[in-house]
Specification:
This is Universal stress protein. By secondary structure, this protein is an alpha/beta fold. It has helices at residues 13-29, 41-50, 54-74, 88-98, 113-119, 122-129; strands at 4-9, 32-39, 79-85, 103-107, 134-137. It has a single domain (4-136), classed as Rossmann fold. It has six helices and five strands, in the order E-H-E-H-H-E-H-E-H-H-E. The protein has a five-stranded parallel β-sheet, sandwiched between helices. The longest helix is centred in the middle third of the chain and has 21 residues, at 54-74.
């Protein structure tokens, strides 16, 4: 049922928990996972200024993906990595809708209702706008 899973990660503990759930589902369904990391333009300016070069910047991004990749390798689940660019919510939605995934799995930052109303949340945007089912992991 869920053969093609998009796992959105940002390097947080929430995204690692999402990776654990994605691994369990992929293993049970004999599926594959695409890990998506979004290089957020609003935050990447600071990263670019502090990076020693392009390779250093890529290394910093890959470090955030490493725990999820190690988990999938350990579980022997086929995966690929895709680094997207832009605002995280719309970038994930656009990618998910353009590539016909069966399921999107994303971690929740755990905002309270007021914070979510004022700030918005990436997981909420993805849930509302994706064409496929979305699993939000608390």
């Amino acid at each position: 049922m869920y053969k093609r899973i998009l796992l959105a990660v940002d390097g947080s503990d929430h995204s690692l928990r999402a990776a654990e759930h994605a691994a369990a589902i992929a293993k049970a369904m004999d599926g594959a996972i695409e890990i998506a990391y979004v290089a957020d333009y609003s935050k990447s300016k600071d990263s670019v200024l502090h990076a020693k070069g392009r390779s250093d910047l890529e290394m910093q991004r890959r470090q955030r993906l490493l725990p999820a990749e190690e988990l999938l390798k350990k579980e022997d689940i086929p995966y690929e990595v895709n680094i997207l660019h832009g605002d995280p919510g719309p970038a994930i939605v656009s990618h998910a809708n353009a590539h016909s995934f069966d399921l999107v799995i994303i971690g929740s930052r755990g905002l309270n209702p007021l914070q979510e109303m004022v700030l918005g949340s990436v997981s909420h945007k993805v849930m509302k706008r994706s064409d496929c089912p979305v699993m939000i992991i608390k």
